[in-house]
Amino acid sequence: MNDSEVNISGVVATTLPAVTTGSGRVRPLPSSDVIIADGVLAGWQQRNRAATVPHTIRQLRESGNLDNLRTIAESGDAAFRGRYPFLDTDVFKTLEGLAYELARPSADEASREFFEESVALIEAAQADDGYLNSYFQHPGIVKQPWEDLSWGHELYNLGHLIQAAVAASRQLGDNRLLDVAVRFADLAVAKFGPGGEEEVPGHPEVEMALVELYRTTSEARYLQLAKLFIDRRGHGTVALSVFPAEYFQDNAPLRELDSVTGHAVRMVYLAAGATDVAIEAGDAELLASVIRLWDDMVETKLYVTGGLGSRHSDEAIGDRYELPSERSYSETCAAIGTMQWAWRLFIATGDAHYLDVFEIVLFNAYAAGLSADGCAFFYDNPLQRRPDHQQRTGAEPDGELLRRAWFVCPCCPPNIIRWNAELQDYFAASDADALYLAQYGDASVTHDGLELGIRTSYPLDGEITIHVEASPGDERTIALRVPAWCHGASVTVNGTPAADASENGWLRLTRSFSAGDLIVLTLPMPVRAHGSHPHLDATRGTLSIARGPVVYSAEQQDNEYDLDDLVVDPAWVKAAELSSAQLSGDAPETVIISVPAAVDTPGRALYPELAESVSAPKPGEPTTTVTLVPYYLWGNREALAMRVWLRRP
Ligand SMILES: [Zn+2]
Q1: Is pTM beyond 0.85 here?
Q2: Known catalytic membership, residue 315
Q3: pLDDT per residue as tens digits for the range 69-82
């Protein structure tokens, strides 16, 4: 590739991903062109600033993540704190989120102090050759740098350093971290680039970051290294320890892999990075491979919440249709990685259906990972909590009934910080013909002279009002996404139904807009019942309830009868009633659903003998109701039973 083929824009742009070049079908809008003003997502960003950031900074200080860097920076000999060689990344991910927060008028002094202190420690801790990892640099650690690529996470560390650095450079114009990241990246290029050691990182992540560094610096060597890491993997390249090759996606080359496999977070980070490489290198074969993997994942391996990962063992994705509710792993980081992948596939293709999945993940598997007060986290996100469930995860030293304040492996909390800080980056995109509204929320969007004020309480409500606040006057297309879950979407412009074409999930309005024009998009949101594919044994014979993109769950505290005894016929869902409620003191007002239900208390036999001729039991009549709350708000009260999937007659 030659640099003249690459159109790197000098404007401030989004961090993940940024200025898309190469063969991308659409480009994301620069971060500064979208401001989330109000509503559900603004509430998430406000909670991030007010609660999650201060909580996480406190945890990073108390847990030793920052002190580990300090020990190296000051050539000290304090013992390494924590267990893992990737604890620097929790600082890096927090800094990435803070780069966004410090660019806003609401930035607070404590965040700025942490940012400054951390940057100074990172600069001072970097070795003369550019290497940086407070674990391997520690005098008390026997292992040597680069000795254990399968488990060392050094290139994963580099990846998160690059992403923090790019965010700081783009959002703040602060290149101090970028200088550190470039030195480390150049060391990696020298060691693993063309003619170097033919190795790959045990934990993919650096691939996305290297492409982002390429977009930022225009230096093709970073894209080249990302591509090498993609293509080397899958040939038994990773030195195996206790994990099988599938865990590392090293059992087959990505271009030949027939299904998403292994460790869930590794898989989606790898696929997102491969999609970046496909876009920037114009690699159609690689793009076709990741699209094939995506389709297989969505059709056979994704939970109804958008969660990915069915096994606690190896934090693995599992087999096709292996989707148990109570042992769903659905790591919060896997939700973020799935959204990163979805967004890149949208950038590559312009197809709305990737955004539909993005939205399902955002409002369900991802959002459930954080408590209503912003200070406790789920690492794994089950779809059912049994009343006698004692310990959530085997990865932590002691049990906790619901979300935890922190983890020994704290990858998820700072990942939430950066993602909530960056939500505006995933709102809109453009191409030569149109401005695409990819997600809905109360926000202002500016693009090429067109200024839109979007007012909505989405996803609590499906009405989206778009005020044209300024327009250059020439003909423009505004493309509105109509989610796959929505039937009967309609749109008016200044009160007149718009007859413009709707195709592939986009409703395109093409005209010369004027300031003062009013577009009203109505996405009907009746309560829906979903079943499962017949091969999905774990939830066959049950149904789940959704409204708009939000999946609902029943919690025992709202229901008189044992959740396991409640039976809902799909036909009864039409009689569902909505009401508004605040589930806990910290939670925002939300929409709760009441659905007619019957009560069926089974006998005690675990395996009752079936009669020779079994006819389907009659549903009978509903005798009670089941109350359902948004799944993402579950677990903010007393730890009782919860179910997403309810029995059918
Ligand atoms: Zn995680």
Answers
A1: yes
A2: yes
A3: 999 999 999 999 99
